[in-house]
Amino acid sequence: MPQLSEDDIDRLARKRAGAKLGWYxxxxxxxxxxxxxxxxxxFGLRSRPWSAYPVLGWGLGLVLHGLSVFVLxxxxxxxxxxxxxxRDRLRREQDRAxxx
Length: 100
Fold this sequence. Notes:
The chain crosses the membrane at residues 21-43, 55-78. This is 2TM domain-containing protein. Pfam families: 2TM. Residues 13-85 form the 2TM domain. Keywords: Membrane, Transmembrane, Transmembrane helix. This protein is an all-alpha fold. It has one domain (6-99). Helix content is 81%, strand content 0%. The protein is built from 3 helices and no strands. The chain has helices spanning 6-43, 52-71, 77-99. Helix 1 (6-43) packs antiparallel against helix 2 (52-71). The two termini are 30 Å apart. The mean pLDDT is 83.
């Protein structure tokens, strides 16, 4: 990773912290809304367990959001390895084109 200035470090840290905070807010809203839907089903609309469908669908979205923030997001080791491989590949292509 190239040397970063203090401003670059601060900007990157804020961006990453904002992404993580966004996921935590998403998870909190998910829990509150789905507990409310479960309560509505349990104490009122008891015809079928309809609340399972939004829980599963939104849960999948929450998992994908978490993967994008914590696994694939900036700073993850796997992402950094992929970025480095792409940099190396582009440099090799550039060197080959310059030799022609």
